[in-house]
Structures are given as C-alpha cells and as structure tokens.
Amino acid sequence: MQPATAVRLEPELELAQSPSPLRDTAGWLSVATATAAGEALRFWYVLQVHPPAGYLHSDMLENVLRAYAMLGQRPGGGPLSVYVPRGISALCAIALWLFPDRSVEALSPIQALLGATAVPLLFVSVRRFWGRRPALLAAWLWALDFLPIGYLGFFLAENFLAFLLVLALALLRPARPGPCLAAGLALGLACTFKGYTLLLVVLWGGALLVARRRWSAAALLCGTLAVVVPESIAVSRIAGRPALLSTNGGQIFYSGHCPVHLLTCHGSQGTWVAGAPTTYALHPDWPDVQLDVPCYDSAAYYRMGWLCLRQMGWSAVPWAAEQVAAAFAGWPGHTLDPWPVDEGGPGAPLGHLFNLATAYLVAPLALWALWRRRRSLGAWLATGLPLAAVLAVALIFMGDPRYREPFDAFLVGGAAAGGLDVWEAVGSLARRGVLW
Length: 436
Prior knowledge:
There is one protein chain. The protein has helices spanning 25-49, 58-70, 87-98, 103-129, 132-144, 146-151, 157-171, 177-191, 197-210, 214-239, 250-257, 277-282, 298-312, 316-326, 348-372, 377-396, 401-404, 408-431, and strands spanning 262-267, 270-275, 288-291. The chain folds into 2 domains: 26-248 and 333-431, no CATH class; 250-295 and 297-313, no CATH class. The chain has a 3-stranded mixed β-sheet. By secondary structure, it is mainly alpha-helical. It has 18 helices and 3 strands. Helix 1 (25-49) packs parallel to helix 5 (132-144) and helix 8 packs parallel to helix 10 (214-239). A hairpin with a 2-residue loop joins strand 1 and strand 2.
C-alpha cells in the first residue's frame, strides 16, 4: 500500500471520473463553444480594435527590425541581433519572406489563432491534473480573459510563449517518457522566445525526479536540450563569446536590483536603452544611467547588479518582497498594469481590471487549491511550480506583470479548482443551515 505521505501522480478528482475524456461529448461541446467565442473575440480585437501593426514601437519594432536583418534586408547580424532570444524575430522573418509587404499583418491572425487554440489545450491539461469540472471552468475563463486577448494587440514574444507553455502542459504525462519528450521540445521552443522558461524546465524535471519518474525527467530534459543546445551554439557564434540563448539577462538583473530608472548601454556595436515599466511606476525619482559597457556584455551587468545587492544589505529583503508583489499588481492600493497596456488606449481599463482580478482573486484561489492538494504531483506540475517560476523570475530579475502574463493559464487552472472548492464549501454550509 502506498504511504499516506507519498506524492500522488493524479488528482483525486479524476480517479473515478466519468465519462472518459474520449467520450465526454458534452464537455467537448462546451469547450468547442468556448474556443469559438474566444476565437471571435481575439480576431475582432486584432483586426478591428487593436491591430499589432499600428503599435510598432519599443520591443515590437526591434522584433521586426531583427527579422529584416535575418533576411539581409538591413544592416545587422552582430551581437545586437542576439541581444534577446530570436524566436519571435525568426517567425517574423518567415512571414516577411512569405508576405513581403504585410509581414506583421500576416502574423496578427496567427497570434489570434494560437491564442484561442490554447483553450482546448488548457482543458486537456487541467482535466488531467485537476479534474473535469475545473477544466471546463478554466477553458471558459481563459477564452474570455482579457489579459491574453489584450496582449495579442502587440507583436510580442509573450503571445507565442503563452501558447507553447500551455502546449507543454497538455503534452506532459508524468508516467510516460514519450509525451514528456514532446513536452520538452515545446519548452525548448518556448526558450527561444523567453530564456527564463528554463526555470520551469528545471522545476518540472526536479519534481519528476522526486516522484521517481527518472525516465520522464530525462526525456523532458532531452527534449528541451534538443532545441536549446543548437540555438546556444548559434547565438554564441554570432555574439563572439559564450552565451546561452541571448546576450540579455545581466542588463535586466542590473535594472531590477540597482536604483536605475533607465539604462543606456554604449559600445562599439551600437547603443541600447533598457528599463522596467515597474520602475517607472514605483520609483519615478530614480536617475537615468549611461554606461560605456556594451549591452551584450551580460556578465559585466551581472557583476554590477550583485554589487548593488551587496550594498543594499538587509534592505534587500523588503526590496525582494516588493518585486514579488510587482510581478502581480503591486501592493494593494498601488497597482501596476501589465505592460504594454496603453494609457487611455483601447482596452486599458479592462486590462487594469483583469490584472487586479489575477492578483487578488485568481492567484489566491490557485494557492488555496494547491494547499488542499499539496501532496499531488499533478497540482504542483499544473500550478505550483509554474507559480514558483514566476516568483523566481521576480526575485532574480525583476517583478514585472509582463513576465507573469504568459504563465497566467497555469493560475487560471488552479483558480478554477480552488473556486469550485469554495463554492462547494459554501453550498455545504448553506445546506446545513450554518449561513442562515
């Protein structure tokens, strides 16, 4: 008999689940309806309300310019071309090659399509790890959630990262190495959009090892490395020095832990300006800094960032707490919008409202569900460890809602389970007359 303290592979809600996933006609009909509704909202938003091509500035413009450089249609190709992971620019380059005059416009419906495709994928994964009823609720919540819809109005890596993370969770089967290998490939692709995805790979792999699923952990790691290693070799060649997925990282670490409002890096290859919207909102009095250190010299910025942390001493503890709070919506009463919501632009009030809901309703409900099923490996894989990855990004780099948003689907799944727990508890108290 399995000891009571052992980690379970499947949630108790799914052990006696009926009907089976393949015969769940009513469930899939509901999911199909949610997907259609989410698809309609997303296409309407990117084609009518907020076309990404009309907002090419900052990171969005750089993504397109790097795509032109990849095709040899503008100067580039040096260390600056690998300052950030290249996945989004590679996609843009393909679209530019296929549709020379309308590359970003061509990617807009692709973004919308992938955004809604995540709805049935989320249903599959939440059903496996949390149960059928939470899966149905999570599918509808994700279909109608404005935050993933609002992000589609911009040409950002986060849109594709969110889809790949949900795909990886849908493929993940703790007891089967084959699907874990496929999940690792999806995570490897996700790493080419945002390097901090590696944190989730480490956490998922470690959890599988603790649960004695060594072959599954090895398959997950091999799938990820099959994408990351060739990309790392290519990036290192372009940068002229060893690099993992890009030469970025140290600059974000420096900006996140030093009292800097805006960082300008100078070097022989050009100039780069970096900053954090959370810093603009929380510390507008901090100074701008210009350093004659190349922006692609990530190691130098890591060293300077560590120096700032050492100088902070014990004051780094409340600073870390502020970063964690800022990853969601800041302290109560001092909330942050998830960049890049335009001030006064279409959807800005909705973005603010949904960000508050994620911080003060969705995340607490997800934590409640995780606590109730804290011995379930599925609960940790589906919600607990992705949330830990978000917190790690906030502590290592900086607390920015933009870095959290691609992980929101994991929180929605846990919140659906937690919300149903609360609903059932309230119903039980009502039936017993406790509330009357």
